[in-house]
Amino acid sequence: METKKLFKTYLKYLVPTIGSMILYSTYTMVDGIFVGQGVGPLALSAVNVSMPFVTLSFASAILLAIGTSNLITYSLGRGRIQRGNQYFTMGLSLALGVSVVISLVAYLNLNSLALLLGSEPEIHEYVLAYLGTIILFSPFFCMTYMFEIMVKADRHPHLAIIFMVVSALTNIILDYVFIYIFHLGVRGAAIATGISQVLPCIGYTLHFLSDRANLKFAKFKMRRIDLRDMIRFGFPAALTEMSTGFTILVFNQVIANHYGVNGLAVFSVIVYLMNLIVNTMLSIVQSSQPLLSYNFGAKNMTHVKRLRKYVLYTILVSSSMMVLLIQLFPNVVLSIFLNHMEADFIELAVRAMRLFSSSFLILGFNIGIGGYLTAVQRPRDELIISLMRGYIVVALVVFTFPNLFGSSIIWLCLTISELITLIISLYFLRRERLHRTQA
């Protein structure tokens, strides 16, 4: 009976979390579908090449947002309302300043940035058009994410859902208008994405200026210790976000060298699928962490073991369904993003998607084990797994294996790096069990 109750509680946390994450992933995929179908594979490649910069913008927002949120909630918990307001204002001011500086530096060095990100001659104009436009809206990306986290600390979490839906619908509608009606191409897609961030940013600002808000704008004094704490709290989450952009950047560089723009177009589709599966895995882990931490704190290790099993089984089922879909219907999945494809392009894409999707079976377990280790008070182990998975192992494998074993191995590089990371993850998991047994 107790097991059934625990499973129901797990589902209660899982379903809304995974639902909102899938909604977000679907909304970003729709953006890619409009670009691929309405403009073409070269434009889709340009969007993919620009993604690491977008990831950097979000990472800077995450760094400050998570750190600021921790300081605010801690202050409010201790009854220091004015101090919480000062942290709120300081965090937003820092985010605005940092995002404007990043945008200014990036825009003044647009051509160099595009080349650094891996732009090829065939898509360079597309990259300049998309990246140049997105950079102008970058501060809104940063501020909207900051507000999204702040509004939860303000005890109005429903506004985050409302504005996310507004943003998604705005992006979808404007994608259609700018691409199919005004024929603005990839620049139109960037404008649509930018405006979809401006509207919620305005909405959040109006909320915090209203009487409904608990957090208020206040004068503050910048202290070094506050800045240090912000960075300390927000760094792990920012590191995870940046790892996605780093992985895309590394693959873009190598794929462009071996396959050219066709390879980049194929990888663009794969990236959207990868983001869907990674976000799904993250939502599974995030929904389980409060339950794991609570039961671990209560020393109810029977429940901790069961929850760990639920998480790993959910990951296995979810990733297997995704892999099965790609293995059985790769042409259907590909046709969702692109049309009017030549036979050799389809052949390359189908082979690449089938090979690359094998990594989806493994990466979920690395994310799951890392999340579990954080929940049971072993964040350092999780940080090592994240560094190995998101930076060190993937870079070593992607830059060395294609030169040793040929171009085709590129599509298996993530699988190989995830397998290596899984061995490391299992080592930390076993060490945690031994430590708990001996304690």
How many domains, in number, for the residues? Answer: 2
Number of strands: 0
Radius of gyration: 22 Å
Q: Describe the global form.
A: globular
GO biological process, one term: response to antibiotic
Family: Belongs to the multi antimicrobial extrusion (MATE) (TC 2.A.66.1) family. MepA subfamily.
Protein name: Multidrug export protein MepA
Keywords: Antibiotic resistance, Cell membrane, Membrane, Transmembrane, Transmembrane helix, Transport
Structural overview:
Helix content is 87%, strand content 0%. By secondary structure, the protein is mainly α. The chain folds into two domains: 11-222, no CATH class; 259-438, no CATH class. Helix 1 (2-38) packs across helix 8 (224-297) and helix 13 runs antiparallel to helix 14. The longest helix is centred in the middle third of the chain and has 74 residues, at 224-297. The protein starts with a helix and ends with a helix.
Features:
2 domains, 439 residues, mainly alpha
Short structural summary:
By secondary structure, the chain is mostly helical. Helix content is about 85%, strand content about 0%.
Task: Write the topology of this structure.
Blueprint: H1 2-38, H2 41-77, H3 81-108, H4 110-116, H5 124-153, H6 157-181, H7 185-209, H8 224-297, H9 301-328, H10 330-337, H11 343-356, H12 360-375, H13 379-405, H14 413-438
Helix pairs in contact: 1-2, 1-6, 1-7, 1-8, 1-9, 2-3, 2-5, 2-8, 3-5, 4-5, 5-6, 5-7, 6-7, 8-9, 8-11, 8-12, 8-13, 9-12, 12-13, 12-14, 13-14
